[in-house]
Amino acid sequence: MPVSLAVADCLVLVASVPNEILSYYLVGNQWLWGDVGCAAFVFCQNLGINASALSLVAFTVERYIAICRPLRAHALCSVSRAQRISLLAWALAAAYSAPWLALTSTRPLRYRGLPELRACDFRLPRAHYLLYFFCDLLAFYVAPLLLSCVLWVPTCCPWSRVAITCTALRSLGPGVVSRSPQPPKPLPLPLLEAPADA
Predict the structure, then answer these.
(1) Domain ranges within the chain, ordered by starting residue
(2) Dihedral angle over CA of 58, 62, 68, 72, nearest 10
(3) Model confidence pLDDT, tens digit, residues 87-96
(4) Quick one: which H or E segment has residue 40?
(5) Residues 119-134 pLDDT 10s
(6) What is the rounded distance in angstroms from the CA atom of residue 22 to the CA atom of residue 39?
(7) Which homologous superfamily is 2-171 in?
């Protein structure tokens, strides 16, 4: 899981930072990489952000199982299962981000005294993307945030951990969790006899 998260963050870094640095030396919103580069950069940015969110969710669920359900962790938290979950998260993120390959294009950018330039922009008016942006907000921000809050409360709060432990012990059967233990009774001290007079 941490490797998946690191790769996703690096993908966002590579797809965003170099072009932002280059923009300081270009005219306006000039784009140098053509239509294919425009679609690829936007797709990679969204892919990295979405894969990062899904990787965080998978990592949170794995930590919750390992801490709060330790008896099940050996069966559920294996290396092969983690790899499959990471691949599934990347596949879902790629499928969700794929429409950006067709939703972006370059448009003419004209400045007086300069040859015609190109800018990377939306293919359609921004109003057509509101539903897509709203789904982004719900699926990759609100839902992961709520799920993380719900799962981290029993992991981090001491009173919640005690409740979970008692519940788990009670599920093992009667008599496992007893009432408050009684302190052991002190042993009687041996009587010391005075030595007989010689």
Answers:
(1) 2-171
(2) 130
(3) 999 999 999 9
(4) helix 34-68
(5) 899 998 888 899 999 9
(6) 18
(7) Rhodopsin 7-helix transmembrane proteins (1.20.1070.10)
